[in-house]
Amino acid sequence: xxxxxxxxxxxxxxxxxxxxxxxxxxxxxxxxxxxxxxxxxxxxxxxxxxxxxxxxxxxxxxxxxxxxxxxxxxxxxxxxxxxxxxxxxxxxxxxxxxxxxxxxxxxxxxxxxxxxxxxxxxxxxxxxxxxxxxxxxxxxxxxxxxxxxxxxxxxxxxxxxxxxxxxxxxxxxxxxxxxxxxxxxxxxxxxxxxxxxxxxxxxxxxxxxxxxxxxxxxxxxxxxxxxxx
Length: 229
Description:
Blueprint: E1 4-8, H1 12-24, E2 28-32, H2 38-41, E3 49-53, H3 61-71, E4 77-81, H4 86-94, E5 99-102, H5 107-121, E6 134-136, E7 139-142, E8 147-149, E9 154-156, H6 159-170, E10 175-177, H7 178-185, H8 191-207, E11 214-219, E12 223-228
Parallel strand pairs: 1-2, 1-3, 3-4, 4-5
Antiparallel strand pairs: 6-7, 7-8, 8-9, 10-12, 11-12
């Protein structure tokens, strides 16, 4: 069965290219050009994923994402944005965005991100992948060896540091809820464990200071975002 993509974009030329390319890749795509028409489209089209431009006529992407998240809490939303400031990206995640792509973007990147999110939602992620070595900007991270290797040093991670970092880096550029981290790593979200998590987050931030393209962002009242630009 074809996966359904709700694509919201007001640039005619870009909209046409993306719409046609996604259809050729086997997706069932509905293109909407006006923010005011998005929510009513759910009455006749139930998407598996939403690709959402931020700058739209009548209703902007941030507002739409918040509205979508209220009705469909598990629907993946990929933001398309020409904005480059970290605060703009954080705002997108705070209102419920799952991932983002900066304009201009390649169709190959968009398709990979769509398929990745759909696979994650379907539970198709290979558990072995969570233990494989990962390249994070200027760093190499080895969960199996509990090591984070920078251009100048090797950090030996504690068990808790490794567990927290593994979850964050399995969800790069995606929101990880604070409660999920606490439940997964510590088993409960008590006040003591919550304060302990704050300490680990500060330590992890310090480990990544050698790469300015990596940022561990706190989303107030929600969770964390391991951001790689």
